[in-house]
Design a protein that fits this description.
Blueprint (H helix, E strand, L loop, with lengths): L3 E4 L5 H14 L11 H12 L4 E6 L2 E10 L9 E8 L8 H15 L4 E9 L10 H8 L3 E12 L2 E11 L8
Parallel strand pairs: 4-5
Antiparallel strand pairs: 1-2, 2-3, 3-4, 5-7, 6-7
Length: 178
């Protein structure tokens, strides 16, 4: 059965949170430590959708993953830039779900005039461990993102220090470019 991309609904919050909670509890992919309530998560979806796309990949009636955009920096001058997040059901990783979500998200962002996409990616400071690998960074590189900065040892989860890389991808051209 084919994968369909659709807008996420607030009523999807329990399933999306189930996917996300795996990453909170078992990985350092997210620096969030406590799993939010379904009500809090539903509110996050609702707030995001007021301005930006929040989408999910589904096969039949099963949600495989989700992605969304949010403000890069909440200042008017940065209104053409967004920060992206993506989470795929661990059993669906490596099957093209993430690529399909990001390609759809990118098209939707271009349609609303977004020029710069950013992703903050958790990475091991030195070597990969059971909580974090370089897979997310490699995925973003395959999607055309480039590393523009690194915050070293900025987070501690599971009693270990992790770093964060900032990656960007430019969309289209800008008026008045240098």
């Amino acid at each position: 059965m084919d994968i369909e991309i659709r807008d996420a609904l607030e009523s999807d919050a329990d399933v999306l949170l189930e996917i996300y909670s795996h990453y909170i509890r078992n990985t350092a992919v997210t620096f969030e430590i406590d799993v939010p309530s379904v009500a809090e998560f539903s509110g996050r979806i609702s707030r995001t959708k007021k301005k930006f796309p929040y989408i999910c990949a589904v096969r039949g009636d099963r949600i495989l993953g989700y992605a969304y955009a949010g403000p890069f920096i909440e200042r008017c001058a940065c209104r053409f830039s967004v920060e992206l997040s993506i989470y795929v059901n661990p059993n669906e990783r490596g099957c093209g779900v993430g690529r399909l979500l990001y390609e759809t998200l990118e098209r939707r962002l271009e349609e609303i005039g977004i020029k710069n996409m950013y992703a903050h990616i958790a990475v091991p400071t030195c070597a990969e461990d059971e909580y974090l690998s370089f897979d997310s960074k490699k995925f973003h590189e395959r999607m055309g993102f480039v590393t523009v900065g690194k915050f070293t040892d900025c987070a501690n989860k599971f009693g270990r220090w992790y770093s964060l890389v900032c990656m960007e991808k430019m969309l289209g051209t800008k008026d008045g470019e240098c």
